[in-house]
Amino acid sequence: MLTLRPPTVRDEAALRAMHEQLAAEDFSFLLAEGTWAWILAQVRREADGRDLPAGRVRADFLVAEVDGIPEGRVSIRHELTPFLFELGGHVGYAVAPQFRRRGHATEILRQSVQRLRVLRVDRVLVTCADGNAASAATIERCGGVLEDVRVPGSGGGARPRYWIGA
Questions:
Q1: pTM above 0.90?
Q2: Which domains does the chain have, with CATH numbers?
């Protein structure tokens, strides 16, 4: 059974290893740099919505764990900035390559949508990299409906945008 929980001191090695693996896919897994104590403090600040860096919103960074083993992560953003509305969405998730194709991404997204509904977010925006068929299928399995595909003005790849909910 997959559970979502805040990261702890004992997660450092596993999460830093996933960060390195996913950097090869151009995905920022940890969303922060620095000592592990600083990263954990930043996760708590963002969860509380205090002392947020420019461009960041209140968000829950949670470890996706199966049988006591971290296998991925999710960032659940409580609201959308203009950038998140265009390209980032409410939910950013990742599963380490060795744990893929087990339904974990679908469960991470499903639980994330439930958490957002508790926060009274009725329409959840989720994006993925254009051409990432696995992520698009995950979003669609969770009820995502494609609205459009946006291309960032500063270059970079196109981002299909899906809405889940009413």
A1: yes
A2: 2-165 (3.40.630.30)
